Structures are given as C-alpha cells and as structure tokens.
Amino acid sequence: DQQVKQNSPSLSVQEGRISILNCDYTNSMFDYFLWYKKYPAEGPTFLISISSIKDKNEDGRFTVFLNKSAKHLSLHIVPSQPGDSAVYFCAAYSGGGADGLTFGKGTHLIIQP
Amino acid sequence: DSGVTQTPKHLITATGQRVTLRCSPRSGDLSVYWYQQSLDQGLQFLIHYYNGEERAKGNILERFSAQQFPDLHSELNLSSLELGDSALYFCASRPGTYSGNTIYFGEGSWLTVV
C-alpha cells in the first residue's frame, strides 16, 4: 500500500517556465510534508517543507501548496532552471517522525533549454 | 553538504559476506535513520535510532541490524549478503523527533554484491 504517490514518473519543462510536481497521500495522520531533490548516486537534498496546519510555504523559487481535503500537495518551481533537472521526492511523516519518512517514488524533472 | 557523513562510499563484496556501513550524523543530532534505495524501489525506511535506542523498524531484513553508539554515530550491519541486497544505503539525521524537524541525508553508501 503506497501511502505517498507521485503519479508522474517524469516531467519535461522548458527553461524559464513553471514546473509543477504533484503528490498525493492516503494517510490522514501525516502532519508534515517535505520535498527532496536528488541527483543520481547522491543523497536526497532537502528543498522545502510544510506543516499540515498551513496551506502554502514559499522559499525563493520554490513554493509548496497543501490541500488537506484532497490529500494533495504540489511543488512549484518558477522560473525553472537547467540545474533543477533532477528527481524530486515527496515525503511525509506523522507523530514527530519516529517511523521515519514515507517517500513517493519520485518524479524525474527535465528542464529543456 | 548536509553534514551527515557516510563511509564507505562504494563497496563491492561477494554473496554470503558481511559488511558494515558507518554513519556520522550532523553535530548534535540525536536521531539517525537508515534507508535503502534499490534500482526499482523508492527510498525504503529500514530503522530509526534515537540517542542510542531503537525507536522504529521499517522494512529491515533479519539479516540486517543496526546500532547507535554513545558518540551518536551509527552502523548498519548487513550479513549473509545476497545479490538483491545491492543498493544505495542512506543514513539520515535530525535533532530529535519533533514535527518540523527536517531530516538530512548523507551521500549514501553504494553496495554491490557479486
């Protein structure tokens, strides 16, 4: 049972445009959500997070939106840059995270010149 | 640089052998997590230690074990290795187990079993 789902294995976006990566979850106990960026053979790098009590969090070019009623979150990157090409993982935890993060399978974002 | 250090970065070993992967968490972080990433799988949670004590287990095989030492570094022991154990093993750390604490990952240890 996949509790965090990223239904798009890959996404191609033109440089300078907006990239929108989506994530759905099924566990209503999740209270904290994070996005990580990962290059091949490297560790995931933390990008941005959001608490379940908020619906938006912004950090520079990155904005995460949370729709609790739909159990959906999205990561917006604007403007997209070539260095943004990577795999993006949506992750979540509940109850302080003792059970660790539950990850989606990732979306490979490709920024085209 | 996340501040989480993992060694070795690469390791090749034969089936049936045993290996130990080592992790030094960020300075001051009490929680250490281990994750496995195989070719076809996402990041799978293996085990969590907090200040030397096991807090939670995920999809960790009985052939695998871990511990966290008084200086807070952690080791993941993999024994009776099989070809399917070939994967990237990540360690991650965070200060505690409060909501809002971000979990930071190391660069990973790439294990190849031949």
Summarize the structure.
Chain A has 113 residues and is mainly beta. Chain A is built from no helices and 11 strands.
List its traits.
heterodimer; A: about 110 residues; mainly beta; B: about 110 residues; 7-stranded mixed β-sheet; 4-stranded antiparallel β-sheet; about 50% strand
Mean pLDDT of chain A: 94
Label the overall shape of chain B: globular
Secondary structure class of chain A reads mainly beta
Helical proportion of chain B? under 10%
Query: What is the terminal-to-terminal distance of chain B?
Result: 31 Å
- Rg from alpha-carbon coordinates of chain A: 13 Å
Would you list the SSEs of chain B in sequence order as H and E? Answer: EEEEEEEEEEE
Low-pLDDT stretches of chain B are none
Percent strand of chain B equals: over 45%
Given helix and strand content, the structural type of chain B is mainly beta
| Integer average pLDDT of chain B | 93
End-to-end CA span of chain A = 38 Å
β-strand amount of chain A: over 45%
Shape type of chain A: globular
Count of helical segments of chain A?
0
The unreliable regions of chain A are: none
Chain pair with largest interface: A-B, 27 and 32 residues
Written account of the structure:
The complex is a heterodimer of chains A (113) and B (114). By secondary structure, chain A is mainly β. Chain A contains no helices and eleven strands. Chain A has strands at residues 4-5, 10-14, 19-25, 32-38, 45-51, 56-59, 62-67, 72-77, 86-93, 102-103, 107-112. In chain A, the strands form two sheets. In chain A, strands 2, 4, 5, 9, 10 and 11 form a six-stranded mixed sheet that branches. In chain A, strands 1-3-8-7-6 form a five-stranded antiparallel sheet, with no helix packed on it. The mean pLDDT of chain A is 94. In chain B, the strands form two sheets. In chain B, strands 2, 4, 5, 6, 9, 10 and 11 form a seven-stranded mixed sheet that branches. Chain B has a four-stranded antiparallel sheet with strand order 1-3-8-7, with no helix packed on it. The radius of gyration of chain B is 13 Å and the shape is globular. The chains are: A mainly beta (113), B mainly beta (114). At the A-B interface, strand 4, strand 5, strand 9 and strand 10 of A face strand 4, strand 5, strand 9 and strand 10 of B.
